[in-house]
Design goal:
four-stranded antiparallel β-sheet; alpha+beta; three-stranded antiparallel β-sheet; 140 residues; SOUL_heme-bd; heme binding; globular; Reg_factor_effector_dom_sf; 18% helix; Multidrug-efflux Transporter 1 Regulator Bmrr, Chain A; HEBP1 protein
Amino acid sequence: DMAEPIQQLTRNNNPQERQTIPFTLIQRQEKLGDLLYEKRQYGKAKWACIKMKEKQYEQSICLGFMKLMRYICEQNSSGLYLGITVPIVTIVHTNEAQSAMTQAVTVAYYLPEVLQDEPPHPFDSDIIIEEWPATIVYSR
């Protein structure tokens, strides 16, 4: 099922072709010289998002990522490979009391700068294009 998206990604997997999302570094946490995480602020932008709710958290992330890869690799209204932006963001949802994680996660792909004004529409109706306000992200 993922053969074509993986082949497309492999053909286009040039590190020079990956677009790093512009951000402002807020905090960097290291331990013994190893990076543990960075706290970053991203500006207002459009993201392709999918919310998944599988039995296991890891399944939700994997399935959401695979669906986004299909969108990135030609299953969109432009019919083109959109390019990779890094990082792909995973949002962990909590219960109403914010005391425990739920099974639901959102996996999100930042649309490259050239597509921000007119993002291609996904063929998969589970994927939605959202405009996020400036956002704080923890990256590792």
